[in-house]
C-alpha cells in the first residue's frame, strides 16, 4: 500500500493508491492548523492500513533538501501556525517504518502532468500555477529540480509594463511576478476579483504580458519542451494564446517556437494533478 497527501493552502487531499501510483481512494478536506490537518490525514490513512511509502506534496516554502536543518518543515509562510512546523516528523512518528518522499505541491503536479497529463512522456517540463500565489515546478532531464531550496518562480523580478504604476501585493518584494500577476494582484489592481473580469478586459493582456516575461526566464535557463500554465487564474478564457503571443513577440523568433505550436498549454489533470503527483513521489 502507498499513500499520498497534497497539503494545500486552503484544502488538503489524502489518498491511498496502488503500487503503480493510481488512486484507489481519496478524501478532500479544508486545511486548518497543522496538528489538526495532518492528524486527520494520518487517521484517515490508518483506517485503510499501514503504507510502505508516503508521498507528501506540500505548499511552499518548504524544506525539501535532505540533511538540512530545514528538511521537512514549512518555512516562511504567512499562514497562521504553519511556519517552522515539521511535516515529516509528524508522519515519521505516525508511520515509523514507512519511506517518506517530500516535495512541493507544484513539483508533484509537474510530475503527474509529465506522467499522464498535458506533457505525457516529456522529460523537460515546466508547470506554472497562478492562483492566490504564483509558483512553478520544473522537471529537467526527467528529474524534479531542487537546489538550496526549490524553484521560487513567483518571486522573480519582471520588467514593468510601460505605464503600469501599481505597487504590487507581495509582502516581501511588492512588485515581483506574484506581486503583479497573482489572483490577489489582479483583484487589487482592477478592483474586481479575477474570475469576474470579462475575457476582453485589458487586465488579461497585461496579465499575459507579465506571465510571458516570467516564462521567458525559465525558457532561457531550463529549456523545457512544454510549459503548462494552470491554477485558478489560468481558467480565464484565451489566456494561454495571449501568453503565447507575447512570448513569441518578446523572444523575436530566437527560441524557434511559434504562437500556435502548443508550447504553452493548460493542464490536463485539473484538480487531480497534485494528489496524483504525491502518489508518483511515493513510488519514485
Ligand atoms: P489557490 O491558489 O488558493 O489554490 P486557485 O488556484 O483556485 O486557488 O486560485 C484562486 C484565484 O483564481 C482567485 O484569485 C480567483 O479570482 C481566480 N480565478 C478562479 N476562477 C477563475 C476564472 N474562471 N477566471 C479567472 N480567474 C479565476
Ligand atoms: Zn515576492
Helix and strand pattern: EEEHEHEHEEEHHHEHEH
Q: Number of helix segments?
A: 8
What small molecules does this complex bind? adenosine-5'-diphosphate, zinc ion
What is the count of structural domains?
2
Structural class: alpha/beta
User: Alpha-carbon distance between the termini?
Assistant: 14 Å
- Give me the Rg, rounded: 19 Å
Could you give me the name of the CATH homologous superfamily of the largest domain?
A: ATPase, nucleotide binding domain
Overall shape: it is: globular
CATH topology of the largest domain: Nucleotidyltransferase, domain 5
The biggest sheet, with number of strands, parallel, antiparallel or mixed sense and barrel status, is:
5 strands, mixed
Percentage of helical residues? 25-40%
Low-confidence stretches: none
CATH class of the largest domain: Alpha Beta
Percentage of residues in strands: 15-25%
For the largest sheet, list the strands in their spatial order.
3-2-1-4-5
The count of DSSP E runs of length 2 or more, i.e. the number of strands, is 10
Could you state the oligomeric state of the chains shown? single chain
Determine the mean pLDDT: 95
